[in-house]
Amino acid sequence: MRLGRPNGRILGGCLVLTAVACAGCRGGPGRRGEHASASLLDSGRAAKVSHRQAADVEIAMARSLEQSGDLAGAEAAYRDALAKDPRRGDAEARLAVLADERGDLKGSAEHFERAARLAPDDPEILCDRGYSYYLQRRWADAEGCLRKALQKDPRHARAHNNLGLTLARQGDRDGALAEFAKAGCDRADARSNLALVLAMEGRVEDARTLYAEAAAAKPGSVAAREGLRAADAALAARGFGGGARESLAGAIPPPSRFDPAVARASATRGD
Q1: Which residue range is the domain that position 212 belongs to?
Q2: Mind listing the pLDDT tens digit for each residue in 110-135?
Q3: N or C: which end of the chain has fewer CB within 10 A?
Q4: What is the pTM of this model?
């Protein structure tokens, strides 16, 4: 899920996302595979390729490079896409995500600004930028971006889930649970999501209560069961002078229903 070395502030956000039970905040680079427009590079048709089609090819290449771990190559391909078609807001947004991941918040902001000018109503870009603000703990900015994304696409699952995380961070539990439900979470998964946010804030007793509710509602939930176990262990450790927050951080497994890679900004279109 991580691309590059996030700074400490970003890492804290990523810890929360490793165990969310619903579609996460940013999707990964997507499945590998040849983009349909790659055939446009065949020698007999190259002269007929438009700037946008040529940019499509570069973006498809960037997706594959990103998934394979060649981040420098992916960044170069996104930049090549912009050289071929400077109007590609999706390429700017993806460069923002890569900058975000390596802790370059200034670079991320610059790319997001350009993406917003090129595609001001794109819910994917708004969602990704909202998550960037979330990682910076800029809750009000995150909420504003995510709500705007949902105005453009009320069924955008990642935006609902991101908004749930943001509301949870601001203490709005009911609002967070409602957004997790809109993202596709069932009652147990929504409570596990909220519990993890509370646990990462050190509110382990509250997290344990929610994990217990989730486990009761869905006995087969690995996230709820393991979260409850980790909370009990953290509370026991606290009694002996241990750190409850640190005990929970690495003890809760990722969910089985959703791929944690969905927690980064989508290089494919859609959720």
Answers
A1: 187-257
A2: 999 999 999 999 999 999 999 999 99
A3: N
A4: 0.73
